[in-house]
User: Fold these one by one.
Assistant:
Number 1:
Amino acid sequence: MRAALTAPVTLLALSTTALLPACTTQSQSKEPGAHAPSPSNVKHLTIDIVRTLPHDPTALTQGLEMAHGTLYESTGLTGHSAISAGPPGTTPTHRVKIPAPLYAEGLTITGPTLWQLTWQNHIAIQRDATTLTELRRIPYDTEGWGICHQPRHNRLVTSDGTSTLTFRNPSTLKKTGSITVTLNGHPLPRLNELECVNDLVYANIWPTHRIVRINPKTGQVTADITIPPLLNPTEQHHADVLNGIAAIPGTNQFLLTGKWWPKTFQVRLKPQTAQPGRHTKRQTP
Ligand SMILES: [Ca+2]
C-alpha cells in the first residue's frame, strides 16, 4: 500500500542506479566498447527555496496543481480522502470529503472542470473547478496515480506507477497514446505525481524525494532533479515522501509538498554543481 510506507529514512539513499531495472546488469556485461554509452544529455538540477508555506500535516498529498491563484490538492487514504482548494498556504476555502471505499489520487484542472483519479477503485471523478462539486464519475481502466493537462495538445498525461505515461482524451479519458519514460536508455518506473509545464512533464518518483523532467515526445528524461531534505528530522519523522508538484503559472517556480508534510515549499530549479548523488545524505529521524 503506497501510504503504508513508514521508513522515509531510507528513501534519500535511493540512487539513480537503485531505481534502474535489472536490464542495467545486462548492459554492463557486454564486451568493452561493443555498445559504448553515449554521453548523457540529462541535466542534473536541484532547488533553491524561495519561501516556506504551511501545509496541513494530516493531508496525505496525492495531487497538487495551481490555477488562477488557487492551489488544488487531492489527498488519499480510504475513509480520509478529500479534495481542497484555496490560496496557497492558507486554510482551503473549499473542501469536499470523499467517503470510503474511494482512495483519491492525482488531479488536474481542465478549464472549468477538473479530474480527480482514484488509486485502485477504477473510477475517475469530474468536478466543478470552482465549487469542487462532483459532476460525474466514469470508469478508469488502470490504477490512478498522477495526472496533468496539456491544453496545447488537447490531452491529459497520466501515470500508473509504471514507466509508462498514457495520453488521454481530456473529455472521455480514453487512451490516445502512450510512451515509455527512459533515463539514459533504461525504463524509469514508479512515475507518480505529475505536472505539465508547456510541452514538458515533471514527475516525482515514488518512493523517493526525486523529480524528473520528461520530454513526452520521446519519453526521455531531460533533467534529474535532486530534492534535498526539506523537513527537519522531527518533521520528517511524522511525514512520508514528497508527492506534490504544482507549477506556479506565469513563473518558473513550483510549489512542492508531500504526504503528511507540515510545510509547502516554493522553489525554483537550479543546476546542481556537485556530482549527482555524491552529496545525497541519509536523513536520520
Ligand atoms: Ca501536479
Note: The chain has a mean pLDDT of 87.
Number 2:
Amino acid sequence: MNVSQIFTGCIFLGLSVAFVGVVVDDAEARNRGGKVKAQAKMRACNVGDDIRGRAVLKERRSDQGVKEVSVTMFLRGDDLPDGEHGVHIHETASCEPCGEARGHFDPGPNSNTSPDGNHPFHLGDLINLDVNHGTGVLHTTTTRVTLSDGPLSIFDEDGSAFIVHINPDTFCPNGEEAGCAGGGRLACGIIESVKPRSHGGPRWSR
Ligand SMILES: [Cu+2]
C-alpha cells in the first residue's frame, strides 16, 4: 500500500465515521422523548356524515432549541361545507361523542379550557381550516405545544384530540361571546403518537 492509498483510506474511514455519527444522532433525536411524530384520523361528529381526513404533526427543534410542531390537516367529504372552520387541539383523546374531547388543551397552573371563555389564549388554539369545493387544508406551526415529554406535551394522562368546528374561529376579539371560537363540532380525530422504526420509514401505531 502506497502513501496515496493510505491517504484515500483515511478519508474514506473519516467519512464513514461521520456518516454513522449523523445516523446515530438522528436516531437519538427521534427517540428523545419518544414522540416526535403524531397523526390523527379525522371523522365526522354526526354519525353517517361524509367527512374524513387525516392530520400529521411533526416536532423539531429550532436553531434556538425551541420545540416547534408543524400541523398539516386534510379533510374532505360531501358533508364538509366550504368556508373556514375553527380547529383546535382539545384536552381529551375521545371523540365518542365529540363533546368528550372536552375543552381546549390548556395545561398549567392557570389552566382555563373554556372554549369561548379563554380564547385565543389556550395552548391548543390553532388557525382555521379553509375548505374549497369539499376539500379542506390547514398547515401551521405552533410553539405552544410539544409532542415530546414536558409540561406542554399533548400526550398527557388523558391524551388530546383535534376538533374541527362548524363555523370559523373569530379568535374572540370582543372577549367571551357564545360560539366565537367556532361553535358546534363538525369533525374529530384522536391524536396518536407515531413510533419511529429502527430501520426504514415511520410506522403508524395506535
Ligand atoms: Cu375547538
Note: The chain has two domains: 1-31, 35-204.
